[in-house]
């Protein structure tokens, strides 16, 4: 067994120092060591984007990133998206527009959508579609994901507070 | 076919007209946990101290295993156990195989004396973590004696081919021809016989989550507890218990959400058997979670892989009289579901048309490939594609419009229930309305004009138009009408629900199958319960019961979940209401017959202020039993085991296969494509899809499944293929080379719905989860053929990769561009 290395990560605003094997993947550290199982593993080749998290604000594939590469950096995962019990506008719009079916790609897709909207708060649907082409979804055919991201954009521009939506028929 | 005597259909139902919740696109009740990353998938449930299993895969397509040396792996750090295939065969039985002759092509969790495809497992290592387990895999030395690889299904059936399974003495696992109706007469009377040879290559569901199982054997109680995202559910769990050699009453399985399935997680026993075997040896929890390469190369759920020779007997006016279908299906190394995929095809073999007779021959070829399993459509999507291809060819040869030849042959709305030649029934439908709506939604006439205009500019635009069937709610009879013996009776494939109204009046529904894999059983049940009890669907709580003590449940598959759950909810609700009615009548001192259900309670007919709400009735029944007559027990909880509502026996001579897939949806897809004839690239310019799967429960959810299924169909039509080279190597074993459509390959769809309620199901619901993929490959092939028609090119092979399109264009010799 190789020598362990100390790694410091700030994940969703909380600082962690861990001793990890140099070969250990960031996704395994997030899931197994920190218990943040919202970041999922899909293809293990960096293709599908299921494992997407933001490192210093930029999306990366945590299944092909070593934890030691993220040393000293800030990581954001789906667990940091909502505000306590409330949902982030992106999460709410994914719910409202049915931008998910099995939910497995959803955390990665949400983090990628967050990055897109942080870079371009007022995107065209074409830009969103092109942007999420980094991430595979096997269920939805992407249409309602694009709709959800477009619906979240104005709410995020207005920094709308996250509220618990009521039930009922959709518009 | 008039001679066939059939049991009468079930009574025609009268459906509730003023539905409040069924038909509303409510937000799905499952979603909040998934949006927060708290789905609770199998990988999320691995607790500290659980050991991790990894499987050594064969690099050889076909070879004898001469020896396996495991000592170095056993001595590696963190390793607890190494089991070879031969050792596993001592510890577990064969995996379930629906036959025929399962003993002649025995399938086990690990290969024993020879490997039969690249990726087949030969040994398993269990270690403290997955890294250490994979380290140890590299220390196992296997000596192989290579055998000739068999990769072509037609060559596999020729005399002299190397044998996959020597005991079978052939690579043909099944060969039978069925004749339904007077095929000879219909062909003799035909004006034209249209012939076609078609090739559909294998693709697969490839959900983003692989299959896994966490097994925990307790040596004290000898009970094995498994958490898995597969195995659909209580009714068929004996298959896994049998393979593990564990008594059913010592075997408990808990279903967890699946991160997608599309059929690929249907009855997947191997991970459960591997994890269960290892946990039993070690007396500790063991997780076996496939990695992506396992899931692509050793998954047992590749899709259909067929060669077709088809003849269609046609009259000059366009009437379709008869069809003969001769198909060879490349099943790979084993044949777990038998040729059940062809049962699916036979359920709707003649499509929406009044074709009067059918001859169907299927040969199942065994080759050195991963075996077939289930993929959205289960083989019926291939039949749709084949039929629409040959109907289009007939239209071309007769000089008819694609819409016109279809209209001319549609089963008319007044002809239902309609028995097709193979014996299955179509309950209801309105195919012409679906077609006309699709032509309108897809702006068919405008695109035809645009096509003509752009052709002047040298652009190759094509418009596809297909009308095809979407069978739903299987009866498992389709898995054994293939055999004359044993003459198994008709089966039910039930589904169960328990409804409980607690002392405060809130409702909990318990489900007994591993229903969630991206469909929305909880939302469906919540809406159906809300419809019954006038409550908010988001107030209904849903529980999944495990195997132990669970009621009969078959699980999803064959687009059955919503219909079967609806029947179970209806039945359990009726029991709850019957008890609540008696209780309310007793409390109000009136005759139960004088009460009516209204707004969440029972009231005296016509006297709305004399009533008891369900909450009041439930509180009394829970707390004050002795206020009621002797036979009213405490509490308010009822269960319903809902049996298949309409299935009948096949004829003894198999001239008629009986009713086994009765609730028949229909759809029309109209894609518009542009083919770049220089590169062979296909671009989708527009796409309209109109589906009729009866009464909709959640229209947006169904539309989402149509879009998603169509996206998969786009993959099947254009990009996705498990390619085995001539040496038997799988050359597409990761998402780098197995190309799944991204958002850039899937267009914005226009979705339309027609609702022709089933006369035989609650609310008139039919299944609809598979529809998109059952239509899109046929529709896109039709569109590409339409685009290339000016070049005299007709593509007969899927997927239509740039290579294949360029080859077809080159062969036609009329093409501009490179190559």
Automatic annotation (TrEMBL), chain A:
Top-level taxonomic group: Bacteria
Q: Where does this protein act, in terms of pathway?
A: Alkaloid degradation; nicotine degradation
What is the annotated signal peptide range for this record? none
Keywords attached to this Swiss-Prot or TrEMBL record, sorted alphabetically, are: 2Fe-2S, Iron, Iron-sulfur, Metal-binding, Oxidoreductase
Gene Ontology terms for molecular function: 2 iron, 2 sulfur cluster binding; metal ion binding; oxidoreductase activity
> Could you tell me which residue ranges the 2Fe-2S ferredoxin-type domain spans?
5-81
Query: Does this UniProt record's set of keywords contain Iron?
Result: yes
Q: Does the keyword Iron-sulfur apply?
A: yes
Q: Which Gene3D superfamilies match?
A: 3.10.20.30, [2Fe-2S]-binding domain
List the PANTHER family hit by this protein, alphabetically: OXIDOREDUCTASE WITH IRON-SULFUR SUBUNIT (PTHR44379:SF5)
Q: What is this protein called?
A: Carbon-monoxide dehydrogenase small subunit
TrEMBL record, chain B:
Please name one Pfam family that this protein belongs to: MoCoBD_2
Q: Which domain of life is it from?
A: Bacteria
Key word Oxidoreductase present = yes
Query: Which GO molecular-function terms appear in the entry?
Result: iron ion binding; oxidoreductase activity
List UniProt keywords, sorted A-Z. Molybdenum, Oxidoreductase
The UniProt entry, under InterPro entries, shows:
Ald_Oxase/Xan_DH_a/b, Ald_Oxase/Xan_DH_a/b_sf, Ald_Oxase/xanthine_DH-like, AldOxase/xan_DH_MoCoBD1, AldOxase/xan_DH_MoCoBD2, AldOxase/xan_DH_Mopterin-bd_sf
What is the protein name stated in its UniProt record?
Answer: CO or xanthine dehydrogenase, Mo-binding subunit
Organism from which the protein derives:
Geodermatophilus africanus
Give the organism's phylogenetic lineage.
Bacteria, Bacillati, Actinomycetota, Actinomycetes, Geodermatophilales
């Amino acid at each position: 067994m190789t020598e362990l290395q100390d790694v410091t990560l700030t994940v969703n605003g909380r600082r962690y120092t861990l001793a990890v094997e140099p070969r250990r993947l960031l996704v395994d550290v997030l899931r197994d060591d920190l218990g943040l199982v919202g970041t999922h593993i899909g293809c293990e080749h960096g293709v599908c984007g299921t494992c997407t998290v933001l490192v210093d604000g930029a999306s990366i594939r945590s299944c092909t990133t070593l934890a030691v590469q993220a040393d000293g950096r800030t990581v954001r995962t789906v667990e940091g998206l909502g505000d306590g019990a409330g949902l982030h506008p992106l999460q709410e719009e994914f719910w409202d527009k049915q931008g998910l079916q099995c939910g497995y790609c959803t955390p990665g897709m949400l983090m990628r959508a967050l990055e897109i909207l942080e870079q371009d708060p007022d995107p065209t649907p074409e830009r969103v579609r092109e942007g999420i082409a980094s991430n595979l979804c096997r269920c939805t055919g992407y249409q309602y994901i694009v709709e959800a991201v477009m619906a979240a954009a104005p709410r995020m521009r207005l920094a709308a507070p996250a509220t618990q939506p009521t039930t009922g028929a959709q518009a | 076919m008039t001679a066939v005597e059939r049991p009468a259909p079930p009574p025609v139902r009268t459906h509730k007209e003023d539905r409040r919740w069924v038909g509303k696109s409510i937000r799905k009740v499952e979603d909040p946990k998934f949006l927060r990353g708290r789905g609770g998938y199998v990988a999320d449930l691995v607790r500290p101290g659980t050991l991790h299993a990894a499987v050594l895969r064969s690099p050889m397509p076909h070879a004898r295993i001469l020896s396996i040396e495991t000592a170095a792996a056993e001595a590696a750090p963190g390793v607890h156990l190494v089991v070879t295939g031969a050792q596993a065969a001592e510890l577990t039985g064969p995996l379930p195989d629906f036959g025929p002759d399962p003993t002649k092509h025995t399938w086990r969790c690990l290969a024993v004396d020879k490997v039969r495809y690249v990726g087949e497992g030969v040994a398993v290592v269990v270690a403290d973590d997955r890294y250490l387990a994979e380290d140890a895999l590299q220390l196992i030395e296997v000596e192989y004696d290579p055998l000739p690889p068999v990769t072509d299904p037609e060559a596999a059936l020729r005399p002299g081919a190397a044998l996959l399974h020597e005991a079978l003495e052939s690579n043909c696992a099944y060969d039978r021809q069925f004749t339904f109706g007077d095929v000879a007469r219909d062909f003799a009377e035909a004006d034209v016989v249209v012939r076609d040879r078609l090739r559909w290559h294998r693709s697969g569901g490839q959900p983003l989550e692989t299959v896994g199982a966490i097994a925990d054997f307790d040596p004290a109680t000898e009970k094995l507890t498994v958490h898995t995202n597969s195995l659909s559910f209580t009714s068929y769990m004996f298959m896994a218990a049998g393979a593990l050699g564990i008594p059913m009453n010592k075997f408990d399985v808990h279903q967890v959400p699946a991160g997608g399935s599309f059929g690929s997680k249907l009855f997947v026993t191997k991970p459960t058997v591997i994890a269960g075997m290892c946990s039993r040896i070690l007396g500790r929890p063991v997780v076996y979670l496939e990695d992506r390469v396992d899931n692509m190369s050793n998954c047992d759920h590749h899709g259909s892989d067929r060669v077709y020779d088809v003849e269609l007997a046609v009259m000059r006016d366009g009437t379709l009289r008869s069809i003969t279908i001769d198909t060879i299906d490349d099943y790979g190394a084993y044949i777990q579901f038998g040729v059940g995929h062809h049962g699916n095809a036979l359920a709707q073999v003649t499509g929406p048309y009044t074709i009067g007779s059918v001859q169907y021959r299927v040969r199942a070829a065994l080759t050195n490939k991963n075996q077939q399993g289930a993929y959205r459509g289960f083989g019926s999507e291939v039949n749709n594609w084949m039929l629409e291809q040959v109907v289009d060819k007939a239209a071309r040869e007769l000089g008819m419009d694609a819409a016109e030849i279809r209209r001319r042959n549609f089963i008319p709305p007044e002809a239902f229930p309609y028995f097709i030649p193979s014996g299955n029934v179509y309950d209801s439908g309105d195919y012409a309305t679906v077609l006309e709506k699709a032509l309108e939604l897809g702006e068919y006439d405008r695109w035809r004009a645009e096509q003509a205009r752009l052709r002047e500019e040298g652009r190759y635009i094509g418009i596809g138009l297909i009308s095809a069937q979407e069978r739903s709610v299987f009866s498992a009879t389709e898995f054994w009408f293939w055999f004359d013996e044993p003459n198994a009776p008709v089966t039910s494939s039930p589904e169960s629900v328990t409804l409980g109204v607690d002392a405060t009046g809130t409702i909990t529904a318990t489900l007994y199958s591993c229903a969630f894999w991206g469909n929305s059983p909880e939302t469906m049940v919540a809406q159906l319960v809300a419809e019954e009890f006038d409550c908010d669907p988001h107030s209904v709580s849903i529980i999944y019961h495990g195997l132990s003590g669970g009621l009969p449940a078959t699980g999803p598959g064959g687009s059955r979940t919503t219909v079967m759950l609806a029947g179970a909810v209806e039945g359990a609700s009726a029991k709850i209401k019957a008890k609540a009615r008696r209780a309310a009548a007793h409390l109000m001192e009136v005759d139960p017959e004088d009460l009516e259900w209204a707004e969440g309670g029972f009231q005296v007919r016509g006297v709305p202020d004399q009533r008891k709400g369900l909450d009041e009735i439930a509180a009394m029944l829970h707390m004050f039993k002795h206020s009621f007559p002797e036979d009213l027990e405490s509490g308010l909880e009822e269960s319903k085991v809902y049996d298949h509502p309409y299935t009948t026996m096949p004829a003894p001579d198999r001239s008629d296969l009986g009713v086994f897939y009765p609730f028949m949806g229909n759809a029309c897809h109209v894609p518009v494509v542009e083919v770049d004839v220089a590169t062979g690239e296909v671009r989708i310019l527009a796409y309209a899809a109109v589906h009729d799967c009866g009464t909709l429960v959640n229209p947006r959810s169904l539309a989402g499944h149509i879009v998603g299924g169509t996206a998969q169909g786009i993959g099947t039509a254009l990009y996705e293929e498990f390619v085995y080279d001539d040496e038997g190597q799988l050359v597409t074993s990761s998402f780098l080379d197995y190309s799944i459509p991204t958002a850039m390959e899937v267009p914005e769809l226009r979705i339309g719905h027609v609702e022709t309620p089933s006369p035989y199901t609650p609310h008139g619901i039919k299944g609809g989860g598979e529809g998109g993929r059952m239509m899109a490959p046929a529709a896109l092939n039709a569109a590409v053929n339409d685009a290339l028609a000016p070049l005299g090119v007709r593509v007969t092979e899927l997927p239509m990769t740039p290579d294949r399109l360029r080859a077809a264009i080159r062969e036609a010799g009329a093409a501009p561009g490179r190559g």
